Amino acid sequence: MIQEHLPLITGKGSYIDDISPKNVVYLSVVRSPIARGIIKRVSKPENALISLTWEDVKIYMPARLFPDLARNAQVAKMPVLADDRVNFVGQPILAFAVDDRYKIEDVAEEVSIDYEELKPVVDPEESLNAEPIHPSLKTNISIDQFLEGGNLSLRSKADVVVSRKIKQHRIVSNPMETKGFICWWENDVLNVYVSTQAPFGVKNDLREVLGISPEKIRVYSAPNVGGGFGNKSGGYPEYVLAAIASLKLGKPVKWIETRSEMLVNTQSLGRGEVSDMKLYATRDGEILGIEGTIIANIGAFDYGIGFIAPLFIARLSNGPYKMKFASIRALGVFTNTPPMGFYRGAGRPEAALIHETLVEDLAEELGMDSVEIRRKNLIGDNGYITPLGVRIDPAGYNEVLDTAEKYYRKAKEVYNDKGVSIITFAEIVRTSPGEGARVKIENGKVNFYLGLGPHGQAYASTFRRLASEVLGISQDKIEIMTGSSEIVKEGIGSFGSRAGTIGGSAVIAAATELLKKINVNSLSEGDLTKYEGIEAEVFYKADDIFAPGAHVAVVDVDEETGFIKVLEYYAVDDVGRVMNKEEIEGQIIGGVLQGMSQVIIEAMRYDERGIPLCSSIADCGVPTALEAPLKVNTDYVEYPSQLLSKSRGVGEAGTTGALPAVFIAVEKATKRKFDRTPIDPWLITS
C-alpha cells in the first residue's frame, strides 16, 4: 500500500468540510428550476444575514478566449448571478448566508421568484437553426472554424470512404467529494481554502472576477481532495459569491456543494458532442485523410472548456495514424444546459471514439484484420506532425500495439463467441507550459514545495523518490508540500494527465538547481545541517507530449435484456517510465471504469422543457461493482519522454482507451452499428 493513502482509507483524512473557522457562516444558492425564461420578480429572504442578486454584484465569470478565435466568435459570458434571464436548470439566481447550515432550507423557502418560461434549446444539432437563446446574438453558434491541412487533393484519389455519425450524451463528473470553498478577509487579503486540483487556477479566476491584485489572494487546497475528474480545476460563481459575502459580513463564509447541485451545476458535465466524419483510404488499406464536422454542446455560456472543446477534439481526431490531410468544421453551440466542464479526458476519449470507429469500419469494408489495418497506418516511433500541425513526439507506438496484439489474439481464441476489440490511441499529456517547484533545506530535511495538488494521486511518494535519486539522500529526509498558491511563485495545476510527469520534472529541476547552488554532486545526511536555509526555485518549461496506448476489450451482451458486461479488459500503455506502479495501475483501472460506463450506462438526459432527468447520483448511471469489468489487466511500455522525469502521464489513458474499445466490442458482439453513447438496452433489443 502507498503510505500516504493509509489515513484516507482508515477514515483519518481531512477534507474541506472538516475545516470550520471560528464564526463561520454558510452560503447557499437559489437556482433556476427552469431551463430558459425571463425573471419577472425576485423576493429576498427576511431571515438571512445577507442576500445577493444580480443587482448587488453585476459581474461575469471569465471566458477563456484565444485571440485568433475571439475575433470571429459570438461570446456570451456567464453572469455570476442571473441578470434578467435564466438559461439552464441550476443557474444561480440568488445567494444568501446564514449562521447555521441547518437553517438553509428554511430560509431558501422564503425566496420567491416569478418567471416567464420560454421554450428551451437542448439538442446541439437543433440549436444550429433554433432561435438564439441570447437575444443579443444572431445565432446559437459561438465557435465556427474550419481546420484544414495537408494534401486535400487526395480526397479524389480515395478508393474507399467510410463514414460515421455518433452522438455522445453528456455525463456528470461526480467525484466522491463535491466542491467546497471557505474564505475570509484579513487586512484586505482574501484567504481561501478550497477543494481543488489547481490552486493557481482558482486564484487567477478570483483575481480576474473580483478585480484585485494577485498578492491580495491566498489560496490553499484542503489537506485532502476527494476526487475531481477536471471538475475542480478553476473558479466558480459560488466562490465569487462567498468572497463578496465575506467582505460584506466581515466573517468567514463556507459553501459546500450538495450532490443535487453538482448534477446541474456549471462545469459538472462533460462530453455532449456530435461528430459526423468520413475516413478516406486506398484499396490496400492506406489511410489518406479525415473530413467532417464536430459539434460541441458548450451549454448556455462561454465558460469552462466550451470555447476550446470542438477545436481540441478536431485536432486530436487524427489519432496515432499517418494521415495526409484533414478538413474538419468545428462548431461550439449554445444550448439551455449547464456550461460544459472538464471531464476526465476532456476531448481525448471523444477523439479516440471518432478515429477508432472509422478505422474499424475501414477494416471491415476492406476485409482486413483489425490489427493489421492499424499497424499499416501507425505513425513511427520517431513521432509525426499531423496535417493540422499537431506535433506528436517520439514514443512506443509500435510496441504498445505489438504487446496488445498478443492479448487480442488470445482473447479471440478464448472468447470466440463474444465481442472482442483492439484499439490504439495517442493521449496528449498537457505538460505545457510547465510547472513550478521550490526546494529548501530546513530543520534537518529537504522540503519541496509545489502549487499543484493531488486529488486521488500519490504525488508525494512519487516526488520523494525522484528527489532522493537526484540528491542522493534517503526518502525519509525529504518532505513534499503541495496545493497552495503561497509556497511557490508560479504553478499550473493537476489535470490533463500532467502532474506526475511535469511536477516530477520540476522536482528534479529544483533538486538539480539546489546542488548547483551549493556546488556539490550529491548530499549526505550530515550536510543538511551544514546547508541549513539554502533554497532554490524553478519553473520547468515543457511542450506537450503524447502517451500511446493499445487496449483490448472483451464484451458479452444479453440479447434478450440488452445488458452489456465487460468480461475482461487489457490496457497496454506507454508510461515513459514507471515511477509508481501501484498508482499507475489505480489510475488506469479507474479510467477504464469511467470510459466503459459512458458506453453502457452513463448519461445526463433532459426532457422537452430542458429539465434534467437525473435527480440523484444513481440516476446518472454511475457504475457499481455489478457493472464494472470483471477483470482489468494492465501492462506497460517504457519509452522515455523528453522530460526530466522521463515519464508520460496516464491519468486519462484508461478513459481514452475504454470508450472506443468497449463501444467497438459491443458492436462486434451484436454485429450491429450504433450511433450514440450510451448504448442503451433498448437499442440492442429493438
From TrEMBL:
The UniProt GO MF terms for this protein read: anaerobic carbon-monoxide dehydrogenase activity; iron ion binding
Q: Which domain of life is it from?
A: Archaea
The UniProt record lists the Aldehyde oxidase/xanthine dehydrogenase a/b hammerhead domain at: 10-119
Major enzyme class:
oxidoreductase
- Classification via InterPro entries: Ald_Oxase/Xan_DH_a/b, Ald_Oxase/xanthine_DH-like, AldOxase/xan_DH_MoCoBD1, AldOxase/xan_DH_MoCoBD2
Q: Which UniProt keywords apply?
A: Molybdenum, Oxidoreductase
Keyword Oxidoreductase listed: yes
Any Pfam family matching the protein? Ald_Xan_dh_C
**EC numbers on record:** 1.2.7.4
Q: Does the keyword Transcription regulation apply?
A: no
Q: Where is the signal peptide?
A: none
PANTHER family listed in its UniProt record:
ALDEHYDE OXIDASE 1-RELATED, XANTHINE DEHYDROGENASE
User: What is the protein's name according to its record?
Assistant: Carbon monoxide dehydrogenase large chain
Protein species of origin: Saccharolobus shibatae
